[in-house]
Amino acid sequence: MELTPRLQDIVNILKNKGSINVKDLALEIKVSPKTAKGYARELQRLGLVDMDQDGNIRLKEHKVEHPDSEKLLKTLENHENEITLLKKEIEVIKGELEKLKKKGKA
Q1: 29 — phi, psi (to 5°)?
Q2: What are the entry keywords (predicted)?
Q3: What span, in angstroms and rounded, lies between the C-alpha atoms of 36 and 7?
Q4: For residue 102, what pLDDT band results from cuts at 50, 70 and 90?
Q5: Most exposed residue of 31, 36, 62, 101, measured as fewest CB within 10 angstroms of its CB?
Q6: Residue 54: how many CB atoms within 10 A of its CB?
């Protein structure tokens, strides 16, 4: 089972911030609080996060109970690496495109 790109984004936010409130998460990912809470509940169901009564979400620190969670975390790490490589490739292509634009104007 793989995480959707949106759920991967939320896990990355939690990795960077440590924890976040559902309302703040909604603002950050530009969705309604209800939608953000749904995403948090899905991650909670998968055993990746804890959510308290006040809507604060954080990654679980201990070994997660869901049988696929280790596989999900490894998949997430692989996707993060792929995204990093793709971003680097995009920057190279942008540079080449700028060179071609300048060459065409000369």
Answers
A1: -100, 5
A2: Coiled coil
A3: 10
A4: confident
A5: 62
A6: 8
Work out the average pLDDT over 87-99.
Answer: 93
Domain count, the chain: 1
Q: Reduced to 3 states, what is the DSSP secondary structure of residue 9?
A: helix
Cα Rg of the chain, angstroms: 18
DSSP string, 72-98: HHHHHHHHHHHHHHHHHHHHHHHHHHH
d(CA 79, CA 8): 9
Question: Do 43 and 7 meet the contact criterion of CB atoms below 8 Å apart?
Answer: yes
pTM of the model: 0.59
CATH of the domain at 82: 1.10.10.10
